Every structure is written in C-alpha cells, then in structure tokens.
Amino acid sequence: MKKLIFCFLFFYNTLFAIEVKCDFEEVYQNGDVQQGFFLLKDEMLRYQYFHEDLYTIIAKNDYYFLINNFNNKTVQKITENTEAIQSLIKISSKFPDIKNQYEQNNMKIKIEKNSKNFIKRIAIISDKLNLSINILNCDFREINRKYFKPFSFEKYEE
Predict the structure, then answer these.
(1) How far apart are CA 131 and CA 119, in angstroms?
(2) What is the dihedral of CA 72, 155, 15, 134, to 10 degrees?
(3) What pTM value is reported for the model?
(4) How many CA atoms lie within 13 A of 47 on its CB side?
(5) CB 3.0–4.6 Å: which of 45, 151, 152, 158 could bond 59 by disulfide?
(6) pLDDT digit string (tens) for 33-87?
C-alpha cells in the first residue's frame, strides 16, 4: 500500500510539474520600470533582469541567491525579504489551479490570468512592496537544470 501511495504522489507531482520561460516587466508605484525574464522548473526560479547594473535571483531548495549581472562570480545568499519570491514560486507551481487572489505574511497578491490560464499579471501589495509584474511571451518547454546553479552560473541561451 505504501508503494502505491508513493507512486501516486510521484506521478501526481510529475504530471503537474511546470517548466516555463517568460519575460517580465515590473512597474513600481513611482513609475519606474524594470524588465527581464524568469525561468521556472520544479519549484526552482531564475529571475533575471536585463539591465547589466542589476542582478539575477536564483531560488532553489528554499535557498535564495543574488548574482550581479555585471560580475556573475559575485554570489550573495539572501536571507531576508524573500516572501514575494516564495509566493511567486508557490503560486506558479499550482498551475493550472491558480486562484485570483492570495493573502499571506501581510502581503496581498492579485493574479490576472491569460487565455491559457497562466499568470498574465501579478500585483503585490504590502507594507514593504507595491508593484505590478506583467508576464509576457511565456514559452512552456523543457529547461536545463544548469540554469539554476548559482555558483557555476550559466548564461541563459534559448
């Protein structure tokens, strides 16, 4: 019986595993805009800004790393203010069962979905952060795990 439950859980998790590459555009309350792309695979996230002066965030196994885009040999572990990243990963991993609104850790997250029932826009509202993230050009495809390694950082190539 235990083997049957294990097999069910394994196939259930594999069936709903998501692999996607999307572009994003963050719009802040003051009008600032930042653009980049993200990769999502098996609850791992690579969130990379296009601007060379900004950074890439890699989230993997409940660890969060910040890598400078201009010098990808510089890796810092992030231990604070990871709630928004955690929420994005958890919400995306529930695809296709994504709700329109979530509330957790004094943060409200509103979701708009596209015609494929995936995330089109995320609004994050909290005491620390207020922004809108537009999700664009999503491509559901297999993504190599090498793009989620912070200490042997690989440039993403399509």
Answers:
(1) 15
(2) 80
(3) 0.84
(4) 21
(5) 45
(6) 999 999 999 889 999 999 999 999 999 988 999 999 999 998 999 998 888 888 8
